[in-house]
Amino acid sequence: MRISTQMLYQQGLNGMLDQQARAAKTFEQLATGQRVNRVSDDPAAAARIQELERAVSQQSSYVDNIGRAQQRLAIEENALDAAGTVVRRVRELAVQASTDTTGVEGRRLIAVELRQRLEELTAIGNSQSGEGEFIFSGAQSKTKPFVSDAGAIDYVGDSVQRELLIGPGTTIAEGDTGDSVFMRIRNGNGVVAAAPASGNTGSGVIRPEPGTDTSVYDGSAFTVSFTDPGTFEILDAASNVVGGGSYESGDRIDFNGVRLVINGAPEAGDSFSVAPARFESTFATIAQLADALEQSPSDDAARAGQRQAIDDALAQLDRSEGRLLEVRASVGGRLNTLEDVQASQESVQFSLEKLVSDVRDLDFAEAVSRLQQELFTLQASQQAFTRIQGNSLFNYI
User: Which CATH homologous superfamily contains domain 54-187+315-349?
Assistant: First the structure.
């Protein structure tokens, strides 16, 4: 092997450059605080870091979704509480209006407050989140859900209950739709509803009692018709007589699994229809009650109609309040679930971040010690090169 002056120079230079590269890499690690700054530093570790960072990002989205759901549900819970307060106040007013001592003018004043409570409830239904989204609009979160149309309150949102992913394969509803909370309240006793005919002349007022036997009731409509003040017939939808009996005020009438009570004094020819319960919004209940209280009844039939409206409203307000309590209980359950899941997901996120740190981050003590060794080796290489560069084979010829 031939040894030349150029080769000696090149070997010395290569040695110094290698040591400089090692020291520069260590300087970079110390500056960034990371052991792996590029894939070439440690291909296996870099691949592991990418995998762990994807897991951390996914876990972070779960935690963010939990926070968002908690915020929206907390706002909904407050709105439901406020709506419940309004409904209870409306019920108090309805009870006050039902007393004979209130009088015509007193009921009109109650109707004025009812209109105000209706506006208040509409504003609650249009509550927004901190992000400006309407919490009761379903998937149409940018659309105001409740709007007034010719004096009636309409729901223009949708029935989609939005859900958020809070864990692998785990979702939770972040809210409830306005139609399920305020609009879809069954009237009557929840199974059947009863109403007097518009041409009644007596003072009879009807109500379906709770406890309709759904195993017997077949969902068909029928009519209770009075042939005289003390006798009634039951007619099916085709006007065929299918039952009947004698009557005294307050008696219970049982037919087809349905229990009915008629108070007052119906006249001959008066009738009461019974049909499956239909949906009635809380807004419509309040508006209809206000309409009834604004009237000035002048005879027994008109007074019975007003009394019927008050009794129907009281029953419907109880069902509306029950629905609000039901939804609020569901919201509270979801908030409790989110609290438990949040603690679990944050723990998983912390563990993943620690794994990333273990693989990627630098051991500063080891790096400083290594840098000192590399600088010492570089300095020794430079000194050795200085001595070598003064030598030449020509000195020995």
Answer: f41 fragment of flagellin, N-terminal domain (1.20.1330.10)
